[in-house]
Write a structure and sequence with these properties.
By secondary structure, the protein is an all-alpha fold. It has seven helices and no strands. The chain folds into two domains: 48 residues, no CATH class; 142 residues. α4 packs antiparallel against α7.
Length: 211
């Protein structure tokens, strides 16, 4: 049937005009009346609408067995993924524990290094004291030599005769004075040796053993 004069121009315009007529009849509930005018065209148009509004190549629904197999495969894959995640979590936990042990060891080594540094500072101070003691011992030895030489010269000058020695007791008493200086020098030398021995012992203890 002809729809309108505009539809007579070509087949595309005829299709557009019938589409408008079909929409109006469908909205008004008068598709039965339209079927009475042109049943074959309405059938073809309804079939065309079904093709347009439905997938051109619908996927068939998988059978029940195939769906179960797919679901089982998905479950197995998920379990494997979770197991891999658990393994990775365990590895990370072990790595964290190892790093924590390393951090504790680093802290211990830092404390030990600070202690050794303090011991080294003490050893340096004792070494300076030992050097000072050695200098004092050298000075004492020099003074002791000078005192010995002075005593020897005083003894030579104060021994003219036996009578002169008996009449003049003063120089002899003065000649006996230098040995006191010699005893003081020996005491200073002994103190220097003791300090040097202490420094050697502390240095031996503070030296770290190779790991």
């Amino acid at each position: 049937m002809d729809v309108s004069g505009y539809a007579l121009h070509n087949a595309w315009q005829d299709c557009a005009e019938f589409s408008l007529l079909y929409a109006i009849a469908s909205a008004r509930g008068s598709l039965g009346q339209l079927r009475g005018h042109s049943p074959e065209r309405l059938r073809l148009w309804s079939w065309a609408l079904e093709q347009v509004n439905s997938p051109l190549h619908p996927n068939p629904k998988p059978p029940v067995a195939e769906a179960a197999r797919v679901a089982e495969a998905a479950k197995v894959a998920e379990v494997a993924r979770l197991e891999a995640l658990a393994t990775e979590a365990s590895r990370l936990a072990a790595e964290a524990a190892r790093l924590e042990v390393l951090a504790a060891e680093a802290t211990r080594l830092a404390t030990e290094a600070a202690r050794l540094e303090a011991l080294a500072a003490g050893a340096a101070r004792l070494e300076a004291l030992a050097a000072e003691a050695t200098r004092l011992a050298t000075e004492a030895a020099r003074l002791e030599a000078l005192a010995t030489e002075a005593g020897r010269r005083a003894q030579e000058a104060a021994t003219p005769t036996a009578q002169g020695a008996a009449e003049q007791p003063g120089p002899r008493s003065r000649a006996r004075a230098p040995p006191r200086k010699a005893g003081l020098a020996l005491a200073v030398l002994a103190l220097a040796l003791i300090v040097a021995l202490i420094v050697a012992l502390i240095a031996g203890r503070s030296t770290p053993t190779p790991s």
